[in-house]
Specification:
It is a single chain. This protein has 417 residues and is an alpha+beta fold. It folds into four domains: 1-145, 2-Layer Sandwich (Beta Polymerase, domain 2), CATH 3.30.460.10; 152-237, Orthogonal Bundle (Hydrophobic Seed Protein); 260-363; 369-416, no CATH class. It contains 22 helices and eleven strands. The strands form three sheets. Strands 3-4-5-2-1-8-9 form a seven-stranded mixed sheet. Strands 6-7 form a two-stranded antiparallel sheet. Helix 7 (169-181) runs antiparallel to helix 10 (222-230) and helix 15 (276-285) runs antiparallel to helix 16 (290-307). The radius of gyration is 28 Å and the shape is elongated. The model has no long low-confidence stretch (mean pLDDT 93). It binds adenosine-5'-triphosphate (ATP) and magnesium ion (MG). Residues 33-34, 49, 51 line the site of magnesium ion.
Length: 417
């Protein structure tokens, strides 16, 4: 059953158990989207998720995969998608769709089809609109996706106006594919995006965040950011960045590209010139999780501490206080500050010295609560907390003490309070 001669042999083989069920039921099953594109562009990599499309109805998909899949999920069923896990791999199997979207709604109107061509036509880009029959490994490419991939062109199956208007999120996806695959926009694509750019407002913040995230982890998202700028998406996505001068924007984008390819770090690079309350509001608007938000805020706050101090004014105490405040964000923040033009040579050197000295290890209170209670002869309660806080201050302002030294200073302070 496995098409060994095909370029897609390995991918088809991974779908084998499902393929047999569908074939036995007289139904067709195709690999589609990213997997096909990546094999054709020589980036097979390790695609953990496979997208599949079929002429089977969602009900039928469910009954066909019963007993074969290790797990099944049905959240997407009303849009035609059944999720399945076989071993290490997850599969999303979707009934061919031929839907139109309501012009002002976030909710697509779904209509199913038995024709593969209908389904491919409603996909975002031709390079993503190729399908491979899992039984014989045949490539179905009615829209010329392979030729576009080879020519390096990002093209929509429908006119770009229609395609972007149907689902404005595709404009963000365009940014990701342009940057990630080194493609050039097809003629008219940028102009079309500019024409319908305002429609991005109808897209949910969650979908936007997820796509933005996928853009920001790319090795070089620069081309994508420039596209979003030129195609008029930036005012909806990051208004504070879009309001800056053209030169400043390109400076910010350069900074983002040079930063570590971690979405939170890249977002901090984009937004680090914002005041704290404006930044917080923007991160909420983007619907970041609490953890993502606090990472970006921590990074930007630490960058602020670094930028706020003149290049050579790094006393031991200043270095310790920065280290304590920045926590896990220290290295990222120093890099970001440097990318923003702060001279960090002295800080780098002082950090290395204090680190080698062990002075930055464990910037905590040096004594445990039980030791404090015993040394001061006090009861557990707020006094202990106050004493611990005083010890942390001592550690930051004066450096390390051995337990005896710390204890002596603590008792001295306590007695003279
Ligand atoms: P990746 O390899 O990064 O996962 P992908 O192309 O697989 O990229 P997905 O978001 O996983 O991207 O989507 C899978 C496929 O579903 C796409 O290749 C495309 O065919 C189709 N698709 C996804 N989102 C859209 C959309 N908004 N409009 C039309 N088609 C889409
Ligand atoms: Mg995918």
């Amino acid at each position: 059953m496995t098409p060994t001669g095909s370029r897609f042999g390995a991918q088809c083989a991974a779908v084998g158990p499902l393929a047999e069920r569908f074939a036995a039921g007289g139904l067709r099953l195709y690999l589609v989207g990213g997997v096909v594109r990546d094999v054709l562009s020589g980036r097979v990599g390790d695609h953990p998720d496979f997208d599949l499309t079929t002429d089977a109805t969602p009900d039928r998909i469910r009954s066909l995969i019963e007993g074969v899949a290790d797990a099944v999920w049905l959240q997407g069923e009303k849009f035609g998608t059944i999720g399945a896990r076989l071993g290490e791999r997850t599969f999303e199997i979707t009934t061919h769709r031929a839907e139109a979207y309501l012009s002002d709604s976030r909710k697509p109107v779904v209509s199913f089809s038995t024709q593969l061509e209908d389904d491919l036509l409603r996909r975002d880009f031709t390079v993503n609109a190729m399908a491979v029959d899992v039984v014989d490994g045949t490539l179905h490419d009615p829209l010329g996706g392979q030729a576009d991939l080879e020519a390096g062109v990002l093209r929509t199956p429908l006119t770009p106006e229609e395609s972007f208007s149907d689902d404005p999120l595709r404009m963000l996806r365009a940014a990701r594919f342009l940057a990630g695959f080194g493609l050039e926009p097809a003629p008219g694509l940028v102009e079309a995006a500019r024409t319908v750019s305002e429609r991005l407002r109808i897209v949910s913040a969650e979908r936007i965040r997820d796509e933005l995230w996928r853009l920001l982890v790319l090795g070089d998202p620069g081309v994508g950011l420039t596209f979003l700028d030129e195609a008029g998406q930036l005012p909806m996505l990051l208004p504070e960045v879009s309001e800056r001068s053209e030169q400043e924007r390109s400076e910010v984008f350069r900074r983002v590209v040079a930063a570590d390819p971690v979405p939170e770090v890249r977002l901090a690079a984009l937004l680090m010139d914002l005041s704290a309350p404006v930044l917080e509001g923007r991160l909420r608007g983007l619907q970041l999780s609490g953890g993502q938000r606090s990472t970006v805020l921590g990074l930007v706050a630490a960058v602020g501490l670094i930028r706020g101090r003149s290049g050579d004014a790094w006393s031991d105490e200043a270095v310790r206080r920065l280290t304590a405040a920045a926590g896990a964000h220290l290295t990222g923040a120093v890099t970001l500050a440097a990318l923003a033009g702060t001279v960090t040579g002295v800080l780098d050197k002082r950090l290395a010295e204090l680190r080698a000295d062990g002075d930055l290890d464990d910037l905590g209170p040096m004594l445990g609560g039980a030791q404090v209670i015993e040394l001061l002869g006090i009861e557990p309660g707020p006094d202990v907390g106050e004493a611990m806080a005083w010890l942390v201050e001592l550690r930051l302002s004066e450096g390390r003490f051995d337990p005896d030294g710390a204890g002596r200073r603590l008792v001295e302070w306590w007695d003279n309070r």
